[in-house]
Amino acid sequence: MKKQTIKEVLQDYKKVLHHDITVYGWVRAFRSNRFIALNDGSTINNLQIVVDFENFDPEIVSKISTASSLKVVGEVVESQGAGQTVEIIAKKIIILGDNFTEERDKTILQPKKHSLEVLREQAHLRFRTNLFGAVFRVRHAVSFAIHSFFNKNQFFYINTPIVTGADAEGAGEMFGVTNFDLNNIPRDEQGDIDFAQDFFGKKTNLTVSGQLEGETAAMGLGRIYTFGPTFRAENSNTTRHLAEFWMIEPEVAFNNLEDNIDLAEDFLKYVIRYVLDNCKDDLEFLDKRFEEEQKSKPEKDRAKEGLIEKLENVIAKRFKRVSYTEAIEILLISKENKKGKFVYPIEEWGADLQSEHERFLVEKHFECPVVLFDYPKEIKAFYMKLNDDNKTVAAMDVLFPGIGEIIGGSEREARLDVLKTKMAEMHVDEHELWWYLDTRRFGSVPHAGFGLGLERLVLFVTGMTNIRDVIPFPRTPKNAEF
Amino acid sequence: MKKQTIKEVLQDYKKVLHHDITVYGWVRAFRSNRFIALNDGSTINNLQIVVDFENFDPEIVSKISTASSLKVVGEVVESQGAGQTVEIIAKKIIILGDNFTEERDKTILQPKKHSLEVLREQAHLRFRTNLFGAVFRVRHAVSFAIHSFFNKNQFFYINTPIVTGADAEGAGEMFGVTNFDLNNIPRDEQGDIDFAQDFFGKKTNLTVSGQLEGETAAMGLGRIYTFGPTFRAENSNTTRHLAEFWMIEPEVAFNNLEDNIDLAEDFLKYVIRYVLDNCKDDLEFLDKRFEEEQKSKPEKDRAKEGLIEKLENVIAKRFKRVSYTEAIEILLISKENKKGKFVYPIEEWGADLQSEHERFLVEKHFECPVVLFDYPKEIKAFYMKLNDDNKTVAAMDVLFPGIGEIIGGSEREARLDVLKTKMAEMHVDEHELWWYLDTRRFGSVPHAGFGLGLERLVLFVTGMTNIRDVIPFPRTPKNAEF
Fold this sequence. Notes:
The structure is a homodimer.
Chain A: H1 6-11, H2 13-16, E1 20-31, E2 35-39, E3 47-50, H3 58-63, E4 69-78, E5 86-95, H4 101-104, H5 116-121, H6 130-152, E6 156-157, E7 163-164, E8 176-178, E9 204-206, H7 211-221, E10 223-231, E11 244-253, H8 257-278, H9 280-295, H10 307-316, E12 320-323, H11 324-332, H12 335-338, H13 355-366, E13 370-376, E14 392-400, E15 404-411, H14 416-425, H15 434-441, E16 447-453, H16 454-462
Parallel strand pairs in A: 3-5, 6-10, 12-13
Antiparallel strand pairs in A: 1-2, 1-4, 2-3, 4-5, 7-9, 8-9, 10-11, 11-16, 13-14, 14-15, 15-16
Helix pairs in contact in A: 6-8, 6-9, 6-16, 8-10
């Protein structure tokens, strides 16, 4: 790339000091007809452009306004003012394109503060704000760290199918995919919908998980991971749910449950460390924002730690590993449970844990990330390995402060007969998953994996609270704008 | 990761020589009741395990067969035989799971050669073959190189939506996404389908491109790229088309057409160099396979270069940059055109170029990758920048030997009035793309980008010829198995 970004100019200013350079960007602010704060998206920091307005064409100066796009040629000098090391003394300014200020003032680009709700309605413009610039740069860093971690550890990236004929996993409600003209759906002789005439020759859906296909890949390539979109057609209008979200699912041949927990812990710590090391400016901004937010809350609801402090603490300690059975014992005798403070009181072993219980364990009892394992088989999926107690399965959930479950995974059931029995018990169609069962027929091996929702992790790292604010164009009930 | 992969053992054998180690894998071959070729997917190379069968439980030895899964403990020694540096003298062998050899012999896992068609029908098992192991390891390397290139160059990864309400781009036929019960589709008072009652409250489709949303992100973050699945509901049963494929779309604020061509060339060369440097063993295997394939062809159809040679040549030379107008002149006076050898003869300026013309330019005329630019506006999309001649747009296509178009892109039309006129001419709904037009209203800037089909590039790098063989689970008309 030949063009210098503002990030490069600010970072390596010694290389360009007292030289003329060319920079490009958008005006974030224009003070006193003299000081332009220019931003090009490469960093949260603006480059100050000093305009000696008496020496410029007044028509050009009059067009410089918030959101204007400029090309600036000028000399890099040490800055007189506070807040920046260097600035540019403009010699030439070119207005790059239209900026209709009257219309602009009806958008979030007008120079005042806007609520997150309003910013969300203009998701195509929010990339230009400090907050969303920071969030999406951090999201990039999280994604890149994920690929880097797996690549370093000899995992292969596998693209599992998005459109799928399998709807057996039961991870959630699915969206249908069809090429039919909905006004004219073909019927067979019995009067049923004739899916044989649809594009794929069968009923198809959007995937809810790439795990099962991922397992088949791991049975040949050893260590694989997916990183792709998954879908839930659930009518959940909450701050934690999206109809379309990105999931990362590693799967490792020869790994058992303990290896799987080790992998999850190493993985999360690597990614968070990477973001701390590579997104300093953005995190400092988000950290300050987080602190401000806390001030507006009642004291009992305030976070105990700052954002960066929280991230540092999470990676400093070993995650606490606790069996489901131990967790139930802790919950049963907790003051919260005895005093009826849980919405769902814990009555006995076998109860499904709710977010309130997970957060009690993480935030109050252990005060660190917790890995729960060996859950009752009834509350977990069919493919999880049955333990020798015949009551629990080798499942694991990683619980994080403020978020609850951030990773869910398991060692998989590698024994064909046990798997078939589980599928029958749980009404999973064996014939539809013939290919999945094949992996247990031919050289079956112990293996394990987990799923991470990318947006949950980005929420955690950025300190944002609504999942719609950490994905560029959120898809939720009644909302597919853009 | 605590477990050693076979790749690590073979690469760093000096660290483990004369030590006992534990390895895991699947049996690729078992010769003379003595020599096991063990593979764990980490590399195309097998690790030889020497079994002194007289000292082993005959029941275990009898279970060792092609596709069996093993855990082996043994000493690493220098190999006596040819073909490997080290081997393992087995001390302990554990059979890890079932391997039903009778059923296995009805699958592609039986020890004999199978056609690519048969392998495709058992896509869940083909990861275990040498060929598909190599293809999917190379696919991983290509993907990782793409992320690395963009990260190094300060691009941010953006996830554009998969389910979209916009169907204005017209890049191809779209799949519908719905939550309706197709047996009971709600109607409004006029008797029309009431999409307001569908999950997203409107008619939605699977995306054909993330470009338009990507442009809005580039207008804030500067340099972005997408890497995600895209869809075409086209009934094309060819070796070059998939209904679901992965696309990479960078978009760069402040770039013009020339910058865009430079970026495409740097990008492709970086990725190919990375694969050459990081997939040596797999490429050597694919190179030999490619050579064998050529032998079975009539001499005139044989490739002039070997696979690795082709890759080295592509990155050695500067891509030839040729305007569409020059290309037409070359084609018009070519022997092929005059002698009627093209299925679609070139008659005049304005003709759309077919694959046969592109391949003539690349393979016969220039004998190197070619970048064509400045195409007639009538044959290109509405968002491409209109040149001053008022006849052509600032489009570019990168053409590769054997593949034809591998990248298509353009400088975008940044002028609001010109863009609106183009949209009206091409019947693109302005109201539906209100958000896209906003990027031209507020600080519009020159910008440019392109699209790369991941599978096309993997085809080129692996020397495979059917696009269904470079994606794990291909989606094509009447086919959505797995």
